[in-house]
Amino acid sequence: MPKVKTNSSAKKRFKLTGTGKIKRKSAYKSHILTKKTTKQKRNLTHAALVSDGDTGNVKRMLAIGK
């Protein structure tokens, strides 16, 4: 049985926390920042957790679990 490869784009975008949850960066923070308010950009700085519905797909891409 061959090894399961990790998705290269996913390993750059997601990190695992100590409790096994998956951290992600907020979207909309890379370009077109002039029209966004300072408060909006500051709130996009914080990391968030992947939602429960998407956790299975992300874990499959990261080859976590099975």
TrEMBL record:
Entry-linked PROSITE patterns: RIBOSOMAL_L35
Matching Gene3D superfamilies: 4.10.410.60
Keywords, in A-Z order: Ribonucleoprotein, Ribosomal protein
GO cellular component, one term: ribosome
Family statement: Belongs to the bacterial ribosomal protein bL35 family.
Name of the molecule in the record: Large ribosomal subunit protein bL35
Species, as recorded: Sphingobacterium bovistauri
Gene encoding the protein: rpmI
